[in-house]
């Protein structure tokens, strides 16, 4: 919410999505957000791919989406319990597809042009700092995604 308030004068009037932890988006909402966006930001717990159906994602065509930012891979006791319970019914291969590299490949195959994603588990505070750096450099300063990722690596 702080990021939205800070950058409201730029592009945020055109932003649409779901904020907060009141409810989990439905599969239809995930699909609508992904197919109707030029950029998509996921800022949440666990793995992004644990929130959407794989068979629906691979059937999607998302050529209008120029950038996907996945600030995921944050673990809490509750999120770990949820992911453990949902993972019981998933095969080893299915769980493997939820890893960061495989997720990026799947998104790329659906038409997404660029993907910025965590590679390993992190904390909420570290992801908040990443989101601030991304927002400032992409929205306020106007740097390219490559320049911004280079800054994140430092």
From TrEMBL:
Q: InterPro entries this protein is in?
A: CFAP46 (IPR039586)
Q: Which domain of life is it from?
A: Eukaryota
Example of a GO biological process term: cilium movement involved in cell motility
Name of the protein in question:
CFA46 protein
Source organism per UniProt: Spizaetus tyrannus
Q: Give the source lineage, highest ranks first.
A: Eukaryota, Metazoa, Chordata, Craniata, Vertebrata
